[in-house]
Specification:
This protein is of the alpha/beta class and 249 residues long. 49% of the residues lie in helices and 15% in strands. The strands form two sheets. It has a seven-stranded parallel beta sheet, with helices on both faces. Strands 7-8 form a two-stranded parallel ribbon. Helix 3 runs parallel beside helix 4. The protein is globular and about 50 Å long.
């Protein structure tokens, strides 16, 4: 039975990925900080092929401890993330540090720990959940955009490095996904403001991301309309429209 490690499994894309893999007979090592949501997610998965771990992935010490408990997976889904919003100077240094480690430094440490072991087996896949924000400016979410851009660059570079091996790294760049992250980040108004065509389901993100990963692609933008519009991201009019739609309170 193949084994996958999923961070941030208790809701959204992480939970959708767990459901997808369980249906395909994977054993899952599942990581989340929120104990209550984790218990609900495990009930929804309803499978004996799951091992759950509680871990604060914004803490280097907690991540180091976690990695020692888990054997080398065949697939890593680095999904854990939070929204960090606010104009320049509004976020505390601790908030910036935690978000940066959770979605960038810690992801790198996790991959750098397990990937040499994958290379020894000459097999394995890594999926990094980044964001469409890595490709277009996000005023009042500059920290989030910077972190997602950084991990996107890391993943693409690493996939190129591993070109002649049986290991691949795929970065997924979803746009607006129907999860609870906006409510948790204080951005409920975006749920009402963003038009329906800009939303994609977590299941769609997983299906398209997994397909790209199996093919060894370096990156994927889930959702046909996002892939088409991404061609025009560098145009001034596109940036104006994006800025208007994504205006933070």
């Amino acid at each position: 039975m193949k084994k996958a490690l999923i961070t941030g499994f208790s809701s959204g894309i992480g939970l959708a990925y767990a459901k997808h893999l369980i249906k395909n007979d994977w054993h899952l090592d599942l990581v989340s900080q929120d104990i209550e949501r984790s218990e609900l997610a495990l009930e929804a998965l309803n499978s004996s092929n799951c091992s759950a771990y509680s871990c604060d992935l914004s803490s280097p010490e907690d991540l180091d401890s976690l990695m020692l408990k888990i054997s080398t997976p065949d697939l890593i889904i680095a999904n854990a993330g939070i929204g960090i919003n606010g104009s320049v100077g509004k976020n505390s240094s601790k908030d910036i540090k935690d978000a940066t480690y959770l979605m960038f430094g810690g992801v790198i440490n996790l991959i750098e720990y397990f990937l040499p072991k994958m290379k020894e087996k000459d097999a394995g896949r890594v999926v990094i959940i980044s964001s469409i924000g890595a490709l277009i400016p996000m005023p009042k979410s500059s920290i989030y955009a910077a972190v997602k851009s950084g991990i996107y660059a890391y993943g693409r570079s690493l996939n190129e490095e591993l070109e002649n091996t049986n290991i691949s790294v795929t970065v997924s760049l979803p746009g607006y996904v129907r999860t609870n992250i906006h409510q948790r980040s204080g951005l409920e108004h975006l749920v009402r403001k963003i038009p329906n065509w800009m939303w994609v389901s977590a299941d769609k993100v997983v299906t398209e991301t997994e397909k790209a990963s199996i093919k060894g692609k370096s990156h994927i933008i889930p959702g046909f309309l996002y892939r088409i519009t991404s061609i025009f991201f560098n145009l001034k009019i596109t940036k104006i429209i994006w800025k208007t739609l994504n205006a933070r309170k």
